[in-house]
């Protein structure tokens, strides 16, 4: 039976960043993903590089964290980032009345936010709503979600990590209240194997509660489904957002030659096989037209739905509003302290923008548990190119 220091479960951005961080500390790491890498939530978000401005009014900690991580990602993965800036538009009087507080909150979170005249905003992006009342420039951007995650995977493999996709963890073995290993099934062949390890990191995103159940542990998780719609054509070069407190349908992100509006929010019990609802698509087109009036007239490309792993349980059942009260902050759970299994850790919450710091935070706790006195260094070095993954693995 093969032995590794740590097994990571989940082949999305968080799992990739965690595997890299642990490997960079000198630990032997084995990562399992039941599908293709990035095939879960990581491969289904709209790809915004959040400056944190969206969260400045309600969640200043996550706003500041997003801004700090934006600066780091631009440095360590420049070819996976389009630093194209963003404009927040106040469409009605209620939005306009919030503008001064919004700018103050951004600056308090170290986010450079500057109001610009509407005529200047229209010079920068001629297709935005000319009836907008106020406009604020912020340092948002766009992520190539696949390349960013694969740069972390490539860097993890370069440091000795082993990545196994199409392999499902079916049991987490324990003895005397401590992790001993995992049992997995190769989905292509049906064969099963066992691997010994000292710690397991549950980075399974909206499936984290199901993974925790394999270890007879619980995680407070809300799987919140969000639908996005893409149309043909790069209607703007900048990210366009509605200047209001976070809600549904308030972001338009340019991705290559597409424009994506997102997203909605509804609680789901099962994050597998999610599909957009017709009313969600119609709603998103209506919202998009308020920001870019001819958005819905563009050729339709696709709609899709992904589940966010929100750390906490939604308190109400309000359809699309359900889950908005839960912070997007990061939660690391050491089940040896909160549950009954030493060496088992879960990582929840966060954003695509904060994948690196999520890996750092959970790896800090794993390293402490294993007695490894090595700090995180993932913010210091540029990541390997994404295509090195296939050359190295």
Q: Secondary-structure blueprint of this entry?
A:
Layout: E1 2-9, H1 13-24, E2 29-32, E3 48-49, H2 60-76, E4 81-82, E5 86-90, H3 93-108, E6 114-116, H4 118-124, E7 134-138, E8 141-143, H5 145-158, E9 162-164, E10 167-175, E11 178-186, E12 192-202, H6 208-214, E13 221-232, E14 239-242, E15 251-255, E16 258-262, E17 266-267, H7 278-291, E18 300-311, E19 330-334, H8 335-338, E20 344-349, H9 355-370, H10 388-392
Parallel strand pairs: 1-2, 1-12, 2-9, 5-14, 12-20
Antiparallel strand pairs: 3-8, 4-8, 5-7, 6-7, 10-11, 11-12, 13-16, 13-17, 13-18, 14-15, 15-16, 19-20
Helix content: 25-40%
How many helices?
10
Question: CATH top level?
Answer: Alpha Beta
Which class do the helix and strand fractions yield? Answer: alpha+beta
Number of distinct beta strands: 20
Report what the structure shows:
This protein is α+β, with helices and mostly antiparallel strands. The protein has a single domain (2-392), classed as FAD/NAD(P)-binding domain (3-Layer(bba) Sandwich). The protein is 28% helix and 29% strand. The chain has ten helices and 20 strands. It has helices at residues 13-24, 60-76, 93-108, 118-124, 145-158, 208-214, 278-291, 335-338, 355-370, 388-392; strands at residues 2-9, 29-32, 48-49, 81-82, 86-90, 114-116, 134-138, 141-143, 162-164, 167-175, 178-186, 192-202, 221-232, 239-242, 251-255, 258-262, 266-267, 300-311, 330-334, 344-349. The strands form three sheets. Strands 5, 6, 7, 13, 14, 15, 16, 17 and 18 form a nine-stranded mixed sheet that branches. Strands 1, 2, 9, 10, 11, 12, 19 and 20 form an eight-stranded mixed sheet that branches. The longest helix has 17 residues, at 60-76.
């Amino acid at each position: 039976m093969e032995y590794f220091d740590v097994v990571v479960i989940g082949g999305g951005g968080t799992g990739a960043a965690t595997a890299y961080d642990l490997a960079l500390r000198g630990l032997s790491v084995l990562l399992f993903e039941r599908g293709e890498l990035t095939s879960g939530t990581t491969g289904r978000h709209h790809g915004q590089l959040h400056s944190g401005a969206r969260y400045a009014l309600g969640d200043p900690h996550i706003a500041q964290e997003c801004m700090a991580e934006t600066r780091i990602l631009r440095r360590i993965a420049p070819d996976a980032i389009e630093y194209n800036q963003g404009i927040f538009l106040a469409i009605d009087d209620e939005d306009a009345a919030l503008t001064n507080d919004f700018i103050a909150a951004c600056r308090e979170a170290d986010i450079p936010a500057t109001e610009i005249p509407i005529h200047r905003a229209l010079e920068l992006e001629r297709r935005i709503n000319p009836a907008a009342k106020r406009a604020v420039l912020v340092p948002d951007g766009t992520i190539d979600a696949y390349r960013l995650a694969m740069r972390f995977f490539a860097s993890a493999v370069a440091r000795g990590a082993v990545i196994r996709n199409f392999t499902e963890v079916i049991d987490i073995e324990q003895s005397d209240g401590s992790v001993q290993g995992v049992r997995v099934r190769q989905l292509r062949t049906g064969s099963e194997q066992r691997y010994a390890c000292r710690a397991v990191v549950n980075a399974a995103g909206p499936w984290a509660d199901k993974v925790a159940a394999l270890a007879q542990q619980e995680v407070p998780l809300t799987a919140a489904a969000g639908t996005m719609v893409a149309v043909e054509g790069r209607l703007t070069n900048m990210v366009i957002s509605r200047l209001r407190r976070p809600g549904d349908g308030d972001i338009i992100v340019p991705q290559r030659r597409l424009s994506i509006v997102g997203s909605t929010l509804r609680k789901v019990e099962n994050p597998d096989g999610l599909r957009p609802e017709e009313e969600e698509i119609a709603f998103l087109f209506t919202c998009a037209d308020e920001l870019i009036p001819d958005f819905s007239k563009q050729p339709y490309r696709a709609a899709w739905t992904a589940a966010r792993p929100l750390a906490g349980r939604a308190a109400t059942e309000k359809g699309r509003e359900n889950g908005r009260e839960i912070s997007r902050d990061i939660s690391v759970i050491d089940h040896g302290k909160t549950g009954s299994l030493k060496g088992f850790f879960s990582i929840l919450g966060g954003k695509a923008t904060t994948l690196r710091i999520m890996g750092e935070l959970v790896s800090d706790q794993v390293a402490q548990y294993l007695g490894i006195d090595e700090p995180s260094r993932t913010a210091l070095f540029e990541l390997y190119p994404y295509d090195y993954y296939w050359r190295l693995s």
